[in-house]
Amino acid sequence: MEPLNETRDKERIPIAFVIPKYGLLGGAEAVVFEMGERLARMDSFTVHVLAHRWKSGNSPVRFHRIPMIKFPRVFQPLSFAHFVKRWTRRHPEALIHSHERIYRMDLFTFHGIPHQTWIEGIRKKRMGVFDRATAYVERRGIIDPGLSCILPVSSLVREELLRRYPIPGSTVRILHPGVDLERFKRLDRKACRGDIRARHGLAPSDTVLLFVGMNFEIKRLDLVMQGMAHAMGRVPRSSWKLLVAGKGEQRRFGALANALGIRDRVVFTGPVTPVEPYYLAADLFAMPSKMDTFGMAVLEAMAAGLPVIITEKVGARDLVETGKHGFILPDAPAPEALGEVLVRLSEPSLRRTMGERAQKKAALHSWDTVMDELGHIYRQLHKNRYR
Predict the structure, then answer these.
(1) Which residue intervals of the chain are DSSP H helices?
(2) Which end of the chain is more exposed for a tag (fewer CB within 10 A), N or C?
(3) pTM score, two decimals?
(4) Could you give phi then psi for residue 11, rounded to 5 degrees?
(5) CA of 297: how far to CAs of 104, 131, 321, in Å?
(6) Where in the chain is the domain with CATH 3.40.50.2000?
(7) pLDDT in tens, 360-373
């Protein structure tokens, strides 16, 4: 087996990202892809991706296929962790940065919450065989003495992690995902506003509330609709419209909109690519999720200059100050509470002020800033290893 640190790479630190799907659809997958592409362009590192499936980008990333036994389902987490472990034993020189539950790693970016907490606490279900296998792999990896650093994506994840596992808080360091500010800077807001609104039958004068998500139930689209219906009752002449971008049970939520008397004010677009023009075409953003360990859409909305409405169960709350960048609602807010926030945000000057502040806040969380911090962590771990 050829070593990773070939002669031409002897001055570079080999980093191995672990994730079952690299560059494919999914929130964590998109974050890891962005990290991998940017890291591979840096002079100090070589990037290896250990994945079962992948889509390559433009950077010099080296891919290594990890087998996965898919049936029966219980073998998926066990087999993936097993075959990653075999690879890492053959390549002890690599720093293993996992974004998936495995048995042994140097760093673990925790994109979710402990699996048992997710199943029993959020989904309110009993642990099945697959769930027990997933939790087993998770626990082995987290309590492994070789794990030097855990990087939860938010304080919410950190809290749940420390609640579940007896690990020292000093090994846990929050590292939020970043946002590509250039994706918004290179677009013309006025042109996007005109194009997207015309495409979906929205008037220039409409106040457009944007919802972006692939799981309407978890992200509480029903609450957004109920809140808008309340706001319409409080300000009957308001021109509120709800633009729903993403994939979900459109028939079910369309029926709810009809029952609330706002069906003519709700537009379902389905999944959209690129999504940036939709942010720029809207006036504000809402994602009052039951649980979102971070919520990239929140940071993207802020980067687009939109005030945001979220709950305290959205990890991006770390970046939002109520009354300054938007509003953070309680865990299970009443529709009237969200509706009253919309009533307040019906004032254009308030939306504009909050949107400007949100955009400045998002600028502090660019991918450049995140990668600088991550590079520092890698160098420190590499230095400690070869002391």
Answers:
(1) 27-40, 75-90, 115-116, 129-143, 155-164, 182-185, 189-199, 221-234, 250-259, 276-281, 296-303, 335-344, 348-363, 367-385
(2) C
(3) 0.93
(4) -95, 0
(5) 31, 28, 17
(6) 7-178+367-385, 182-363
(7) 999 999 999 999 99
pLDDT tier at 332, thresholds 50, 70, 90: confident
The answer on pLDDT for 140 being more than 50 is: yes
3-state SS class at 211: strand
User: Residue 111: which of 150, 54, 85 has the closest Cα?
Assistant: 150
C-alpha Rg value of the chain to the nearest Å: 22
Fold of 182-363: Rossmann fold (3.40.50)
Is the model more confident about 5 or about 15? 15
Is residue 172 helix, strand or coil?
strand
Cβ atoms within 10 Å of 161's Cβ, excluding its own: 21
Q: 7-178+367-385 falls under which CATH superfamily?
A: Glycogen Phosphorylase B; (3.40.50.2000)
| Tokens 């939520």, located at residue | 253
C-alpha 289/C-alpha 307 separation (Å) is 16
Own/partner pairs for 234-238, CB < 8 Å, 24+ apart?
234/339, 234/340, 234/343, 235/343, 235/346, 238/207, 238/346
CA dihedral 366, 368, 369, 372 (to 10 degrees): 160
**108 φ, ψ to 5°?**
-135, 110
Tell me: pLDDT of 340 over 60.
Answer: yes
What is the predicted pLDDT for the residue at 2? 47
Predicted local distance difference test score (pLDDT) of residue 98: 98
Give tens-digit pLDDT for 253-265.
Answer: 999 999 999 999 9
